[in-house]
Amino acid sequence: MYSLKTNSSFDSAHFLAGYEGKCRNLHGHRWTVEVEVGGEKLMQDGQTRGMVVDFGDLKKDLREKTEEMDHCLIMEKGTLKEKTMEALEEEQFRIIELPMRPTAENLAKYFYEYMADKGYQVLRTTVYETPTNAATYMA
Ligand SMILES: Nc1nc2c(c(=O)[nH]1)N=C([C@H](O)[C@H](O)COP(=O)(O)OP(=O)(O)OP(=O)(O)O)CN2
Ligand SMILES: [Zn+2]
User: Fold this and answer.
1) Is residue 93 part of a domain?
2) I need a labelling partner for 88 at 20 to 30 A (CA). Which of 32, 37, 80, 121 fits?
3) Counted domains in the chain
4) What's the whole-number mean pLDDT along residues 111-119?
């Protein structure tokens, strides 16, 4: 079995609704997402000979999602007042509403599912909120 890893980072704001502590406040992270994919066999011909997948393709697919999530507010749907949402939208701030609390754990699963849907044999995804705090999801 071979395993390949790549990572990509993005900067965004979030808050943890219902959290008693500083993380209930709007704050930012430079999130780093690490994806590990596996494969039993290497490509036999052509451009990708000797590779499980081309790192370039893997990184491009991961970046598509991290770029979409860059410089925005990532929040759990329904956790801000309607008038707050209207004000943010009026300011044309970019907002990504998720059906779950934007913790490192939930984001790790979110990226796992995104890469699996792209066709990769995903082994695990790890989301770093800070260089010392990370959560990993594996199926
Ligand atoms: N299991 C989890 N715990 C926490 C998460 C999480 O996603 N999963 N998230 C947070 C907050 O988002 C918070 O930003 C992290 O705070 P903290 O651990 O305090 O990190 P700091 O780097 O700011 O810590 P300092 O030691 O104060 O510098 C909370 N918990
Ligand atoms: Zn945080």
Assistant:
1) no
2) 32
3) 1
4) 98
Q: Which domain holds residue 128?
A: 2-71+101-137
Sign (positive or negative) of CA dihedral 133, 130, 11, 6: negative
Tokens encoding 71: 């410089």
What would the two tokens of residue 14 be? 């979030």
Ligand 1, residues at Cβ distance < 6 Å:
16, 23, 27, 103-105, 129-130, 133, 135
Contact between residue 38 and residue 112 where contact means Cβ atoms under 8 Å apart: no
Q: 61 pLDDT band (50/70/90 cuts)? A: very high
* pLDDT value at residue 132: 97
Judge whether 95 lies within some domain. Answer: no
pLDDT of residue 9: 98
d(CA 131, CA 27): 16
Domain harbouring 111, CATH code = 3.30.479.10
What pTM value is reported for the model? 0.96
The SS3 of residue 24 is helix
Q: Is residue 21 part of a domain?
A: yes
Nearest-atom number in ligand 1 for the CA of 107 is: 7
